[in-house]
Design goal:
This protein is α/β, with parallel strands linked by helices. It has 8 helices and 14 strands. β3 (29-35), α1 (39-46) and β4 form a beta-alpha-beta unit. The protein is globular, with a radius of gyration of 17 Å.
Length: 256
């Protein structure tokens, strides 16, 4: 599996830095994971957006899904699409309120929202806890500790595995979900010495501790806000986890 980072700024986009968005590819199948502020621009620089085979959203905060509106305009109004987006609806695996959330995000006023559900170009699939298939990927979803319907994921293919926290505080489920994954993509939104708020985000130390407890193969840190000291977050994670730890970079790709 190949993981490509469209954006990795936490909570808000930073200067020249899109918020959360990733591509995961195997067997020619392109899965988009999150589509936060600025990521649609980054996507177009790398791939034809019509090449997306499915989308997966951990939750519906704007820094993870704001650019869904841009993708919707692209799919509904592009004058020369490389595929017919109405004959090839894009599967969107997301929390249950995604259709109404995205229609409200897209619509200009109440009258527009009453007639726009975006089902002309998307096939919305509500998430739940458990195992499901997305193209060649086996996905296991588990509840995340975050103040809305939120999920963490374990994604497997060909004997390799990727764990992704989404946004979450420390919880009992996460270490079991990502146990022994080859690559652990973990948010780390602040340093542990700062004001850690339960059931919201992980600190660098907490991300490292979970990686060590779960015995993951490699720790990739992401979702670091522009106001957080990334070097301090990295140092915390390395102190807690003795394996390979890196902060992901926008535009970079990582073999899982």
């Amino acid at each position: 599996m190949l993981l490509t980072v469209l954006g990795c700024s936490g909570s808000v986009p930073g200067p020249g830095a899109p918020a959360s968005g990733y591509l995961l590819e195997a067997e020619g199948f392109l899965l988009g994971i999150e589509l936060g502020n600025g990521t649609f621009s980054a996507l177009q620089a790398l791939r034809d957006p019509f090449e997306l085979d499915a989308l997966l959203f951990s939750h519906l905060h704007a820094d993870h899904c704001a650019d869904f509106s841009a993708l919707s305009v692209y799919r509904r109004y592009h004058p020369a699409p490389t595929i017919d987006p109405r004959a090839n609806k894009l599967p969107v695996h997301a929390p249950a309120e995604a259709p109404t959330r995205f229609s409200a995000q897209y619509g200009t006023d109440e009258a527009d929202r009453q007639v726009t559900d975006l089902s002309d170009v998307y096939d919305f699939v509500p998430l739940g806890v458990g195992k499901f298939q997305v193209g060649p990927f086996e996905v296991v979803s588990a509840p995340a500790a975050h103040p809305c319907e939120s999920y963490s994921f374990r994604i497997s293919h060909g004997g390799r595995s990727l764990g992704y926290t989404g946004d979450t505080g420390v919880n009992a489920v996460l270490p079991d979900l990502v146990h022994d994954v080859d690559t652990f993509l973990a948010e780390a939104s602040w340093t542990h010495s700062g004001a850690v708020i339960p059931d919201l985000h992980l600190s660098g130390r907490e991300a490292g501790e979970i990686a060590a407890q779960a015995g993951v193969g490699r720790l990739l840190l992401t979702h670091i806000p522009p106001w957080t000291d990334s070097a301090a977050v990295l140092a915390e994670a390395r102190a807690a986890y003795r394996g390979d730890v890196v902060i992901v970079r926008q535009g970079a790709s990582y073999e899982v």
